[in-house]
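# step 3/5: fold
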Amino acid sequence: MRPDRQFEAWREVIVDAHLSWDIPKIDCESFPASMRQHRLGGLRLTDCTAPTRVTGMRGRAQIARDDEAYLTVVMIAEGSETLGLGDHEVHLTEGMFMLWDSTRPMAFATGEHLRQMSLLIPEAELLRRMPRVRDLVGRPMGGLHGAGGLFMDHFRSLIRRFDELPAASREPALHATLDLLGVCLGGQPELPPPRLRQLMHQQVQSHIEKHLADPALGIASLAGHFRMSERNIHKLFAGTGTTVSAHIRDRRLAMCRRDLISCSLRARHVSEIAHHWGFTDLSHFSKAFRAAYGMSPSEWRAQTPVDAAPGADQIPGMQGGVHVTRQS
């Protein structure tokens, strides 16, 4: 294709894939962009790039040309984009995503370079799954951590490998994507299928391990972080032989048990170690420790040989005799 025709061709494909838009022509000698799309039923998956700043808008005229209403998840894989929604703007950068409504006017302006992935979902389909999903339209969300990160990773992989899927597997894969989107948006009535439950369980466990020292870690903070109901957080642990609270307590006790016999922490009082790992009540900690290990923390420390590998299991943030406060 001639370089001076690249922008026109890209614009035509974008409008075909993303509904009707008014995208002004830009003066450029070439426009080395890309665009991939997949369609199945009413769902559309797109992956597009723009090598320079592009603007566009959807007004009443463009909206009237569309035969069906869509709710679209816009994900920024690289670069940035500013979306104008009525009287306010939303600036999305790499790793962020947002839901927009095709029945409402909108404008966009890309940064100097953009890679954007989108999932266009018929409005009726998404409202059937998440009746209150419209409340989330226009709200920027993070896709680097928690359920948002899980959804972004899944969607990137789906876009990349869609052509490899057998025809019979494509529709189930897209329905699993919508289930995971429901988890991410916090609007799902029930948990997603088993494979996604397993992935979510792994994400929750990883988050717990990283935040054991936070006294606020618990079912409420997990539900808030992963945008899930407390009931569904509890369900993730069903069949594991433990509960969320018991898992957190047992992991904290294990860390305390380890650090009580660490050579580098020998001078630390039992209460300091307990407090570091999220126990705010020393009496409760002592009772829980005895129930788990059959002896008090002091008895465990007194009768167990000093760790032969000094510093190998030192508490993060308690180094060289100075307590270091880490800020995120």
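# step 4/5: annotate
The CA atoms of residues 286 and 296 lie 6 Å apart.
# step 5/5: archive (pending)
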